[in-house]
Predict the 3D structure of the following.
Amino acid sequence: MPTNALVNPLVLPILGLLVEQPRHPYGVFSELRHRYEYLRVRSATIYTLLNTLSRAGWVEAAEQQDPPVLSTTEAGREALAERVTTGLRSSALSGDTTFMTALAYIGILGPNEAIDMLQARLDRIRTEQERVGDILDQSDALHLHMIEAHYYLDRLRNDAAWIENTIGQIEDETLAWPRQGRDDSH
């Protein structure tokens, strides 16, 4: 676990689940394991993080309930939005789980902000496509010897097409948006 528990990658999905609906601590653990098998969640880690999030003022328990029902505070929702923004805009293009996890909670942002973050990622993808394409064009190596670069370039193309389509769905409002998304008026 990172030295500062608030930078643990599990914080984003924990906050996201609690924004979706208040849950008992075991419900958070259970839903994380069910939805995010790739995160390899351990119960001790989740309970420790829930305590840390509570001390940070990002999560609160409903009074007089046993076991407690946890929900996010306004500060917790803002922390989630910051993590989603960073994950969408700045996470590695090479397929780590940060982008996927941030994408799962894109609804915390307003539609315009979500478009901006996806567009920033699309711009990075296009730059990387150009860079990898140039490498392949200038290489006289056999296709087989550069197969991983061809694979990566195809993945980038696929990701770019998916993001363009998703931006279009947000713009034409065919992708439903939750009411709790942050207002954005630009």
Notes: The chain has two domains: 1-109, 110-174. The chain is about 60% helix and 5% strand.
